[in-house]
């Protein structure tokens, strides 16, 4: 749930064994085209790749449904820009969010909306699927840092509360996701040390209502080698580190956020009140559909490899296409059908 740095070695090993056979054939056919080309880069180890929380636990793959709701109506995102955001950064993120809906299937394959189709395989006890439609309902700008430049889990709720109280942000119990994004100068409780993003729900005492929300921070200036990996890798203080990959939209911090946003949205939609889809017996530390696949972006990932992804003519790495020709690198998510991590750029 928390975008923690869990890489479950066993799981990834199984995945790489499972999928190694398909990669050669696809490589050969791709070379006939001019770029983009498939490749599977091996990178220096992730700074916090082996989390104590999941290491050695075998209940990881027993993802279970706990009878709570999923987001089955068209999902309205209420977007909160906290701190200083420039228009080009906002556009990258909004293009990603607007690429999720099935009506943007026009995007080249493999597409963001096809990636989301794995999330829509999850249902609630009435048989209703997670919605394939994701909209940006409203935006709210908190550029004066109403709660300061350091946020805690509780002050994040305060920011949402302000947005809800000061119209035009409606209370949207049924379809709403409140997504708060902090700029690179904002520090957040546990950011970089334990999490790159998280989701939960608000408390009536703070916000007046119980509303599912997620936070994701721009790690560009604080810990790109942790939260914008693999666009920065451990090694050099301010540089992007040995072996770092070039980000698809030229912004290490924001391109790194895209995958974390995808991770949190997938989990929020399948486990909005933390009583629907998760693995593990402890609801205070659930392992959710994004956690299970962190660090995996394509076929044959694991053991330092991120999986088969694509590289364009300028050397920028991506695995998904979005609207308006945008490209993104987004981690895979767990499929309840395949009982494995899945993404539309799979080669097998
Ligand atoms: C809904 O979920 C079921 C069960 O996973 C799946 O078989 C079906 O294809 C899903 N429908 C859509 C529209 O995703």
From TrEMBL:
Any Pfam family: Phi_1
Annotated signal sequence range: 1-22
Main location class: secreted
GO annotations of cellular component type: apoplast
Keywords: Apoplast, Secreted, Signal
Localization terms from the record: Secreted, Extracellular space, Apoplast
InterPro entries linked to this entry: EXORDIUM-like
Keyword Kinase set for record: no
Family listed: Belongs to the EXORDIUM family.
Name of the protein: Protein EXORDIUM-like 5
Gene name tied to this protein: LOC104606814
């Amino acid at each position: 749930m928390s975008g923690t740095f869990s890489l479950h070695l066993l799981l990834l090993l199984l995945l790489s064994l499972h999928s190694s056979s398909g990669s050669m054939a696809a490589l050969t056919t791709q070379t006939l085209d001019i770029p983009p080309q498939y490749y599977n880069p091996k990178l220096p180890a992730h700074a916090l790749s082996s989390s104590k929380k999941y290491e050695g636990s075998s209940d990881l793959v027993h993802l279970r449904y706990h009878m709570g709701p999923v987001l089955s109506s068209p999902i309205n995102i209420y977007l909160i820009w906290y701190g200083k955001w420039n228009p080009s950064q906002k556009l990258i993120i909004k293009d990603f969010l607007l690429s999720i809906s099935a009506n943007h299937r026009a995007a080249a394959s493999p597409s963001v909306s096809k990636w989301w189709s794995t999330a829509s395989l999850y249902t609630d006890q009435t048989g209703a699927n997670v919605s394939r439609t994701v909209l940006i309902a409203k935006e709210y700008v908190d550029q004066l840092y109403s709660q300061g430049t350091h946020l805690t889990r509780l002050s994040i709720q305060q920011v949402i509360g302000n947005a809800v109280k000061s119209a035009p942000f409606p209370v949207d119990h049924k379809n709403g996701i409140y997504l708060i994004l902090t700029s690179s100068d904002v520090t957040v409780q546990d950011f970089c040390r334990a999490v790159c993003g998280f989701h939960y729900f608000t408390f009536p005492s703070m916000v007046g209502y119980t509303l599912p929300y997620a936070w994701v921070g721009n790690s560009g200036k604080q810990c790109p080698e942790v939260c914008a990996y693999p666009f920065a890798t451990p090694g050099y203080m301010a540089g992007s580190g040995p072996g770092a990959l070039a980000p698809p939209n030229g912004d290490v911090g924001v391109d790194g956020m895209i995958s974390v946003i995808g991770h949190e949205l997938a989990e929020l939609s399948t486990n909005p009140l933390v009583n629907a889809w998760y693995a593990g017996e402890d609801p205070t530390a659930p392992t959710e559909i994004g956690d299970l696949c962190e660090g995996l972006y394509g076929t044959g990932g694991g053991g330092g490899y991120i999986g088969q992804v694509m590289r364009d003519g300028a050397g920028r790495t991506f695995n998904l296409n979005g609207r308006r020709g945008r490209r993104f690198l987004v981690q895979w998510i767990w499929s309840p059908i395949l009982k494995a991590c899945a993404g539309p750029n799979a080669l097998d």
